[in-house]
Amino acid sequence: MLKAFLISGLGADSRLYKNVALPSGYDVTLIDWHIPDITDTLGSYAQVIINQYDITDNSIIIGVSLGGMLSVEIAKRVKPNKVILISSIKTDSEAPWYFKFFRSLPVYYAIPGKLMTHLGFLVRPMFGKMAEDDLALFKNMLRNSSPVFLKWAMRAVLYWKNDVKIPNLYHIIGDKDLVFPYQNIKNPTAVIKGGTHIMVFDRAGEINALLADILK
User: Fold this and answer.
1) Which domains does the chain have, with CATH numbers?
2) Alpha-carbon distance 55 to 45, whole Å?
3) With CB atoms 3.0 to 4.6 Å apart as the test, which of 12, 67, 106, 122 could cross-link to 63 if both were Cys?
4) Which helix (H) or strand (E) segment is 30 a member of?
């Protein structure tokens, strides 16, 4: 039985995958975020996750948003069977314009970490419309996130560099994603029409069908 590891995004936890279902025959592990060392990059953090969860060659790695970027770093250290990115980027050349802006003007440094967990009012404008129960869940995930982790992750994401082409990588993006615009994505496996950055909630049926096809 192949092992499948699912990694959530920034400000979220494993509940992000509540509507996602893999085909039968997979041993699924939901990966939880832990507090990184202040010196960690996404690369060194990936090695910590590999060690903690015993991620080995021939595993399936699935990541949403930040979890997709971390999946790429994991795939540079082990040899997965498949890597599947959802609402994410696979190289820094796919990063949106505002990454460069926030690197030159790092205003996030000035935001108290605890305040970051109370920015739920920005979820809908940034991530797109979602059902009220999904919105409430996402706000709850954000409130329960570690302020230390959020500040570390913002810097790690903004300064992430990768130009390595990962074999057996599949990339699913929505054409209404405001965080990672699909126009920046090179050779996506699938573009979901109307899909936003949080389409794992409201377009899970289409995502599940794509996952079944990729993993068949």
Assistant:
1) 2-215 (3.40.50.1820)
2) 13
3) 67
4) strand 26-31
